Amino acid sequence: MNTFAFVSAATPPKGTPPAKLFRIAHTRLSKPELIALTSLQGILAKDSAENLYLDDGSAGYKHWLEILKTTHGTQVEDAASCRALLAHFAKAPAGYLLCRAADQRSLALAGTLAGPLRGIIIDEPLQSLADSLGWQQLHDTREKDYAWLDRALAEANAGTANVGPDLASGRECPRLSACPSNPGATQGRALHAATTPDIIVSQPPGQVWQARDYAVLANAQVVPAPASGKGNPADESETRLAARARQPTRAGALPFILGWGDGEKEDEQTFIGRVSRLGLPLIPSDHARNLSVLSSLPVPDGGLKQKGSATRTAKSTQKPAKKHTVTFVLSDGDNMSWLLFDCPVNDRWFASPARGQVPLGWGMAPALAEFAPGVMQWYYDQAATAVAEVESDKYQVTRDSSAHPATMSLHSALPRDHFIVGPSGNGYFYPSLMPPGALAAHCAELNRLMGLSDLRLVQIIDNDAFERTDLWDAYLSQPNIDGLIYFDYAPYDKYRGRIVWARGKPVVSAAMQLWGSGHHASTPAKPSRNSPDAVAARLNRAPRDPYSEKGYSLVVVHVWTHTVADVAALAARLDPGVEVVAPDEFFRRVQANLGNNQ
Question: Which helix (H) or strand (E) holds 192?
């Protein structure tokens, strides 16, 4: 279940806000029907006030659909069938692209041509239906591959093919009837537009609908998933990825990858290492659905704003208390699929009744500021806050998403959710493996995205690179970045809370991690050092010196094995001399109390 795409740093296209959506359950659809409808969804997102919404049955995507209905007034109607939808929108496509979906290259080539030609993708079993709807076949991509595409384009650019007068413009053909009647002209223009995209999408076998709608909206070039790693031979996809990394985009901006790798062919560390060496950040989004529609969610006129930030407040004139300062940061915030799918509605995470009982750091993909800014603002709006008043020995805490206030002990700071950039900036990559110059360029782009998204702190994942201050200089020279949080790939807390400095700003390594079942696999009766009990005991024993780096602990919480409730329960076990704060306040204290020694 993997998809990835590269996207330039130029503003990604956004779908047209839908006045009406036709909802259809994907479980009712065959694979050819999913292929057709997702490509149609991308075509409609370009300029239609009506579109369709694929309901995968998850609470997450029902949640976003409900927001479209209640907040933006979108009408929702259940569709009777795929055939009914295709008939209703019969005039939207310029024609169809016939493919053999079992052949990755045929499907990928059809996906490449679908956006520029406004062509719906039709697998062989649906060809008779397409013909019955009166659509003209634009191309038959069966028995063809990207070598054909490149040869055809080369011939077109050399003037040896009959491609018509408008090839150099690379404009979209809005309707088949608006294109020159000469088939060579239509084909030539499509080839030119299709091979100079800002986005490249790559999908392994079986991925027929995730991200395909957005690929069509964005005129993406689609290639089969690379087949390198674990003894598999590299194929043309790997070559095209490497070439794309070196090729400037039309806007002269930087490419990055949207999706994920093929987990059956190589592990995460190998894949991320490979794309890092190409200079390509990756945004995990292999399970993203309906992105062409969700990209249309608007943001307030004032732009994206969090609910306050301690890192930008004036330094306190009060002498710091002799306490140990702790912050908890959730892992995997770079995962755009999770942020769209399960995170907002699952009671393990953002929908947890325990959210608001303890300050907490949430990773966020800054690219959401451009891909789906309305989604990002929803998280900001729902963040937990605290009322500035005290009732007996409790703070009264409110959560905008709940009618029931929570309480917490007085020795914890005011609880709230604070958002930070997920690893390792404008995508997941290992900074130590980036080519010369690439890291600085991507950090400059990250600075722009952080300015758009009101984020000030960045998580990093790398391998044995904590002391590489030359790398951190590229980040911390940027004015919108106040500090870095370093996780080693394995284990996250390898550097045990050490702090290094670059440009007068801190790079704080994870001191501890909350990960796994809490017991050793070989000796289940023996608690692990990563269990809630062990982490609480270690924090209670930690030095309470605000002028020492040992007086600060950043704890990473592995989201796939621990919950917000686990963090709240752990925090309740801490002594009064241990104070839990949000990440921005944590970095403010580190900067104020330790920065003068640098």
Answer: helix 183-194
